[in-house]
Specification:
alpha/beta, 6-stranded parallel sheet, globular
Length: 165
């Protein structure tokens, strides 16, 4: 299980004592695969532990040979979660994985930076936006930026799902 460790979680848990119960939602939240299945391909945008809800989608799509492009945003190579498993799934053909690092070391030859509209255009052309379902998950600012850029690109709200991390 992948669990993000954020300070606000600790603040939320501090008042609880041994034996208390807390509500926990399903890892995919309100995501409905029905709308996504109407599109011919998927673009998944994940920052850090935002990869967690994407795993079920990836496994579902790989089993059905549905073209899926996962773009993982992390600070460093050592922050990349589930890397070997993603490489193995990508070797089957229907999954493409792109890693983007915001603090790469000198050996990194991949994409660098943070999510921005120009970068998003590399993964979602104007021609493909009507046939692609897009899901994004990560820290609040990442998710807000994804949604903002997708709206500027005139993507249909029905083809966008923003997970709340």
């Amino acid at each position: 299980m992948l669990i993000g460790h954020y300070c606000f979680v600790l603040l939320y848990l501090m008042p609880f004592v041994s034996g208390d119960t807390i509500p926990v939602s399903h890892h995919v939240g309100a995501f409905d695969m029905a709308e996504a299945s109407l599109c011919s391909k998927m673009l998944l945008l994940a920052a850090g532990t935002g990869l967690t809800p994407m795993i079920k989608i990836i496994l579902h799509n790989v089993a059905r040979d549905k073209p899926t492009h996962l773009v993982c945003f992390n600070k460093t190579q050592s922050d990349i979660l589930w890397r070997e498993e993603l490489d193995s799934l990508a070797s089957r053909g229907s999954l493409q994985v792109t890693h983007v690092l915001s603090k790469p070391d000198s050996e990194w030859a991949g994409l660098t930076g943070r999510i921005n509209q120009d970068m998003l255009l590399q993964f979602l052309s104007p021609e493909s936006k009507d046939t692609t379902f897009i899901a994004a998950c990560g820290p609040i600012l990442f998710s807000q930026l994804c949604l903002s850029y997708l709206k500027k690109m005139d993507c249909d709200d029905k083809r966008i799902h923003i997970f709340q991390e």
